[in-house]
Amino acid sequence: MRARGRRRVRTALAGAAALALVLAGCGLKSGSPMVDDVVPGSVGQGQPLDGASLTVTSKNFSENIILGQMIGLIFKAAGAEVLDRTNLPGSISAREAIVQGDADAMYEYTGTGWITYLGHAKPVTDPLKQWEAVRAEDRKNGVTWLPQSTLNNTYALAISKKNNAKYHLRTLSDVAALSKKNPSAVTICVENEFASRDDGLPGMEKAYGMSIPQANIKKMDAGIVYTQVSKSDSCLLGEVFTTDGRIKAMDLDVLADNKHFFPNYNAAPVIHTATFDKYPVIAALLNPLSARLTTEVAQVLNARVDVDGEDPHEVAKAWLIAEGFIKEG
Question: Would you say 82 and 32 are in contact if contact means Cβ atoms under 8 Å apart?
């Protein structure tokens, strides 16, 4: 299962510069060439990247690896030689690879950019305004943000459809009402980090006027949360990530954040600005891809990796071909 320590490094990056120097000397030059025989489909006609040598990267969890592979395959079909340096450990190493120019492109999340890298404590509620704010401020770091997708990998609470047949919960306000009417019914499984974060459980309780008894809060590894909510009665609700493939695989209902408490984590391509200045056609290659990526698409693709055990590269390639973005050579 994907490592949930990944992009959730959402505190200020004190000491990040020093860490980046360490990471720069610890294998960030490694990688392997993409050797797929792919040609343009709906994007990359005329192979506008012919002669370019580009490096793609990602963090080390399934969804971000899949997205990084998609970028690489589109670049490859458009004529570039592509070095695959996806699956770097954590958020900071992939971020620094883009900032320093050790990598040219990856998919990043707007909330991570705003809160983690740019150091803002308060997220922007409107998704488009969040992206615009990140794009404008990150220019000074030599990072170009292309238009975001609607794929939003944020926090949520989920309940099994079996249990929800009794409670009929649709929103977090419904949970708040249940917690007041029947406090003992609201049991919740969460990660340790979510249990203590201001943008996690404590903040959510405050925003929605909930007061969940400590005895009803069970802390555990993220992967176990899904199993406990789906297959046991120990937790009525569980912390999930909205794009996780296990949501559908385990027959869970995701409750709407009707007060828009949780930050937006929309996926968008980020490009090393010097690379983008040299190859501005990258926008025309990746914008159609982002326009097609949704939370629901991510759930399906993530399930193929995290539930079915398929290879992220092959999942990315098969989807791009099925959608007509690229073709087999």
Answer: no
Reduced to 3 states (helix: H, G, I; strand: E, B; else coil), residue 154 is coil
- What span, in angstroms and rounded, lies between the C-alpha atoms of 93 and 24? 8
Of the pLDDT bands very low, low, confident and very high (cuts 50, 70, 90), residue 198 is confident
Structure-block tokens of residue 42:
């709906």
Q: Are 85 and 34 in contact (CB under 8 A)?
A: no
Contact criterion met (CB below 8 Å) for 117 and 138:
yes
Mean per-residue pLDDT of the chain: 91
- Over residues 259-313, the pLDDT tens digits come to 999 999 999 999 999 999 999 999 999 999 999 999 999 999 999 999 999 999 9
CA distances from 26 to 87, 90, 173, 196 (A): 14, 14, 47, 32
The one-character DSSP state at 50 is T
Dist CA 33 CA 269 (whole Å): 20
308-322 in b/e form (b: 16+ CB < 10 A) is eeeebbebbbebbbe
Give one DSSP letter per residue of 164-181, joined into a string: HHHH---BHHHHHHHHHH
66 close to 35: Cβ distance less than 8 angstroms:
no
